[in-house]
Amino acid sequence: MATPSFLGPLFIVGMPRSGTKLLRDLLNRHPYIGIPTAETDCIPHLITKFGRYPNLGDGNRCEQFYTEFATTSFYWYMSREGRVMPREILLHAPDLNDWDSIWETILRWYSPPGKADNYIWGDKTPSYILHMPLLKDIHPEAKFLHIVRDPRDCALSSKRAWGKSLYRSASRWAEAVAIAQRDGAMLGQDYLEIRYECLLDSPKELLQQVCCFLQCDFLESMTTLARPAENLGAAKGSTKILCENKHKFGCSLSPKCIRRIEEIVFPVAMSAGYTLEQASRHRPMSRLMLQVLRLHDGITYMMAATKQRGVSQVLRWMTQQHRQSGWR
Prior knowledge:
By secondary structure, the protein is α/β, with parallel strands linked by helices.
């Protein structure tokens, strides 16, 4: 097996409930691809806080960075897996004034164990769908893999997983996918858009396309999972690619509901290659209604999460996410 000529970074982006975890875990089956099992979701925040050139060679700055890094959801999730990066690891970065060098050091340390030498490093964070130009600026060699799911199924899956509004989910899908397509056009050959449904129907063919994009060999082992990729939804606990996990909206949503979702996503869904069944025009949501539904989604999430984690932990978590997340 040849060593890839492209060594990273690879950023997997896409809307929540669009198959980003499945795609990451399939790619991680390759010995020359290593992507951490948690999402960083903090790179834009840390760039804003520490500037374009972070100067972590200064001891105080390095200490401040690590302290802030240790408050991120990425650090928390990885620590739950028993992986806590010592701050001394930062000093291994070849250039402490260069974000590319710093994040390569961090993400290679957190990559799944057992990878071959000179593997492709990267990250899977859905919210970076909104930040590709920024990431390309600090990572000149970066490639972006954008997975798109049918907006009707995507909204339905978000509703089932988190109780989120179907219509706000559709609106967010339309906005984010439009941004990704605009920015992706500027990235040229460093951007690849794939469809979730194609991954389900023809995993081998699609992963061969992805491997060609990443300049690495395709392996048959990439079409099966070593462990379940999902802990929510229809694919929860499955180690197989569920080819039937699509077009669920037709038997789960009313024609009126489908029509409204299609009106919200109309031009973007058409440009992404989806056939719309009910709508014949674009009718976006008002800003006022979006704000109302945003409040609804926040309350719904908080109530559900409180039952599992308790009020104080959820409030702390939501405050942190509001400050650091790429979705803010």
